Amino acid sequence: MKKVAKANLVEVWRKLSAGAKLYIPVDTDGVANFLSWQEGVAVDLETLNTFVPPKKFFYPQTETILRYEIGDELKIEDFACQAGENTIIFGVRPCDVSSMALMDRVYLEDPVDEAYRRRRESTTVIALGCKDPDETCFCQAFDVDLGKAPGADILATDTGEEIVLNAQSAKGEELLTLLDGLLIEATSGDENKVRDAQDKAKSGYETVVSVQGLMEKLDGMFEDPYWEKLYKRCIACGTCTFVCPTCHCFDVQEYPTGNRGERIRCWDACMFSDFTQMAGGHNPRPTQKERVRQRFMHKLNYYPHQHGEYACVGCGRCVRKCPVNLDILEVIKEIGGGAGGL
């Protein structure tokens, strides 16, 4: 366990950026997002969540997956084999770290997405424990500890004037070794400060919601009139899916130009009417009711049936950003849990 004074963090970031692409939360016109670190940027380690979740580093919002040229022979340039530059993400919140494990189950299980795998393996994740959870945070319902992030390579904890860094993987140990001249060995007193910071964060947690038995309750609700009432507020903007750290649906588009062309993959959303539109015109989710139902059923019923845990980490982004306040917390409370659950 090492530590560094906050006043010296710039030196740490400068060292890290010399050998890798370093991304860090940056304030741009009042909005925090992970951007490439450079001297003088307005680093923001206080905002709870970045607007766009860090899934974008492994699963970009838009990417070219191949280019082709048709001539005497078909020439194909596959971009998956080119993915994966050495990357460090500093300041990932515990809920977002948990979301990476959920994404891994989608993209790293057979068939493996090669581009995702390469990006994941070439990235070192430095988590930053939360200090002041928001009223829209409900991560504890999904067993996320807001002061810990076991899936990260390094856990950083703000103890006041210093940041304490604890390596949790071989990549994390390697990174702390690289920073050795800039870090100080932590003491038992620092370990106590870390525990105090984690306890303080927990004591500030406001939102209490239970998902016990929720999956089982939803088993019998596919045709429930509840969805008829719920969907009428939805305007199909897709904001909830685009800011969600666990949504993983995409579309593939072809752009031919003569004898050349490229294939693009981009984020897509079950909230959009054309998401399930078939070539013959049939749509198995013909109205917004079916689409809204799909979103909640996938996160709270289908995914947990398949993988054994809910496809939500309680980050609260969708709660904060939905323009019509179609609140997943409200849905969970109205449906209600009970005994059992995951």
The low-confidence runs, each spanning 5 or more residues with pLDDT under 50, are 338-342
Query: In total, how many beta strands?
Result: 12
Order of helices and strands: EHEEEEEHHEEEHEHHHHEEHHH
Major β-sheet strand ordering: 3-2-6-7-8-9-1-10
Task: Specify the overall morphology.
Answer: globular
Question: Which value, in Å, is the CA radius of gyration?
Answer: 22 Å
CA-to-CA gap between the ends?
A: 34 Å
Count the helices. How many?
11
| Average predicted local confidence, pLDDT | 94
Count of separate structural domains: 2
Largest sheet geometry: 8 strands, mixed
Helix content, binned percent: 25-40%
Judged by helices, strands and strand pairing, the structural class is alpha+beta
**Beta-strand percent range:** 15-25%
How does the SSE layout of this entry go?
Elements (H helix, E strand, L loop, with lengths): L1 E4 L3 H11 L1 E8 L2 E6 L25 E9 L3 E5 L8 E6 L1 H14 L6 H8 L1 E6 L25 E5 L3 E6 L2 H9 L5 E2 L2 H16 L10 H6 L6 H5 L8 H4 L7 E8 L2 E8 L20 H20 L9 H5 L6 H8 L7
Parallel strand pairs: 2-6, 6-7, 7-8
Antiparallel strand pairs: 1-9, 1-10, 2-3, 4-5, 4-12, 8-9, 11-12
How would you characterize the overall build of this protein?
With 342 residues, the chain is α+β, with helices and mostly antiparallel strands. It folds into two domains: 2-203, no CATH class; 214-335, no CATH class. It contains eleven helices and twelve strands. It has an eight-stranded mixed beta sheet. A four-stranded antiparallel beta sheet has the order 5-4-12-11, with no helix packed on it. The protein is globular, with a radius of gyration of 22 Å. The model is unreliable at 338-342 (pLDDT under 50).
